[in-house]
Design brief:
By secondary structure, chain A is mainly β. Chain A has 1 helix and 7 strands; from the N terminus they run ββαβββββ. Chain B has 15 helices and 13 strands. The radius of gyration of chain B is 25 Å and the shape is elongated. Classes of the chains: A mainly beta (about 90), B alpha/beta (about 375). Chain B: Keywords: ATP-binding, Nucleotide-binding, Transferase.
């Protein structure tokens, strides 16, 4: 199975400036495990901008198939084949 | 809201929008009676204020403690080169009053704070976030919840913008109970912004404001994301009010809440006195050709300006750079303010490499060398 990952709001800078990634998965992962997987396998620089301790850094919103991850179980959601998962860093500029 | 009557001149001015099925004379009267508070007369505020004034919002409040600078003008198009050093709320007022003398403009030439907001916010129906920082976003969202007023939130950076409406709940704390940590705050002054990006988002904020006044459904519980590079708009469904949100459950008084503490301590600016050199000392080393300057700013900043013969190693690459080992000359790190270059000294010291850094950074260098251009 594989999932489509999208980064925005500057998070793409941490992943080799890629806004979109297709990530093959050998086993089923929860969203929390997926976050670690992305950090361990794909993140290139400045992990402190992606994670704080063992969770996602505050200020990042996660969307699963265009829906807030809070609406589908957050950390515990089990990622499905071909899910589209977006990591969006909230912007403050104006 | 008390509905106002419209004069023939007003009907002429607003005729094309009155023609809209959702508008009519009644809609225009609603706009005339409405009081909208815009916090920030910058990149978002520029088109937003122009469209709100053009549309005939009866009373517009503008809060901004900043002054107009040349560096603002590529995006803050409500201001002009003739208004440099003038307060932005005042500068905006001048153009808006020319655009539409029929409306009332109330300006507040100060920063919005928990304290100052108490005398400003209660007089308005809708609050619009057009600021550029984390603290004001929490403060304004909290004010919206506290006074039960909808808040229209926009933001923009680089090629991207975001838009949502807190009406007033779910609020910013429902979405982000913990604020973005300071080390992850990004600013236009560091990473840039294309002028029309806040233009697009500010314009969308004007549309949502007008819809709110007309009683039309707005972008509540949804996030709109605009990416100018791929020319894509994406709309996402957001969570409902959080049962644990301290603001929505009435535990936050924005006039007394300690925002500085909530956002976390400002990290102390690192300083290592025995590793500092000043501009005169650096100049001397350059003349003697006895120095390797390493500039640790990011590449776009470096490409705009740098001291001649500096090499470029961005701060986040300093730890792993092999170039640092290969220099035979004394190393001097430079950055904009002296903070990152002090951190760079600490990083290479940990690897047993001696280095110093330019005190006050390139900002200080500019004072000593007026021909050096840095912003």
């Amino acid at each position: 199975m594989s999932v489509h990952i999208a980064f925005s709001g500057g998070l793409e800078d941490l992943f080799n400036k890629q806004r979109n990634l297709t990530v093959p998965l050998e086993s089923q992962l929860t969203l929390k495990q997926l976050v670690f997987h992305l950090k361990d396998r794909y993140l290139q620089t400045r992990p402190e901008l992606f994670m704080s301790g063992d969770s996602l850094r505050p200020g990042i919103i996660v969307l699963v198939n265009d829906m807030d991850w809070e609406l589908c179980g957050k950390d515990d959601y089990v990622v499905q084949d071909r899910d589209a998962i977006s990591f969006i860093s909230t912007l403050h500029g104006g | 809201m008390v509905e106002a009557e419209l004069s023939p001149a007003e009907i002429e001015r607003y005729h094309r929008q009155i023609l809209l099925r959702e508008f009519g004379l009644e809609g225009q009267k609603k706009l005339k009676s409405a009081k909208v508070l815009v916090i920030g007369a910058g990149g978002l505020g520029s088109p937003l204020l122009l469209y709100l004034a053009g549309a005939g919002i009866g009373t517009i409040g503008i809060v901004d403690g900043d002054v107009v600078e040349t560096i603002n003008l590529h995006r803050q198009i409500i201001h002009s080169s003739n208004n440099l050093k003038i307060n932005k709320a005042e500068s905006a007022r001048r153009l808006l009053q020319e655009l539409n003398p029929e409306i009332k403009l109330e300006i507040y030439t100060q920063w919005l704070t928990g304290e100052s907001s108490a005398s400003i916010v209660p007089g308005y129906d809708i609050i619009v976030i057009a600021t550029d920082n984390v603290e004001s976003r929490y403060l304004i969202s909290d004010l919206g919840v506290y006074y039960k007023k909808p808040v229209i939130s926009g933001s923009a950076l680089r090629w991207e913008g975001q838009l949502t409406v807190f009406s007033p709940s779910p609020c910013i704390r429902c979405l982000f109970p913990q604020p973005t940590p300071r080390h992850a705050w990004s600013k236009a002054s560091d990473i840039g912004v294309l002028g029309p990006i806040p233009g697009v988002i500010g314009t969308l904020q004007a549309i949502e404001t007008i819809k709110l006044i007309l009683g039309l459904p707005v972008l509540s519980r949804k996030l709109l994301m605009y990416d100018g590079l791929s020319c894509q708009f994406k709309l996402f469904q957001l969570r409902d009010t959080s049962p644990t949100c301290p603001a929505c459950s009435g535990q936050i008084n924005p006039h007394t809440f300690n925002y500085a503490e909530f956002l976390g301590q400002i990290p102390a600016i690192p300083s290592i006195p025995d590793k500092e050199i000043n501009c005169a000392e650096l100049k001397r080393l350059i003349e003697l050709k006895r120095v390797q300057i390493i500039d640790v700013r990011n590449s776009n900043h470096f490409n705009i300006c740098h001291i001649e013969n500096s090499i470029h190693i961005p701060i986040h690459d300093v730890e792993n750079s092999s170039e640092i080992f290969s220099s035979n000359e004394p190393l001097v790190f430079v950055c904009k303010t002296g903070a990152d270059s002090a951190r760079a000294v600490e990083k290479v010291e940990a690897r047993g490499i001696e280095a110093s850094y330019l005190k006050g950074g390139l900002d200080a260098w500019k004072e000593a060398e007026p021909s050096f251009i840095i912003f």
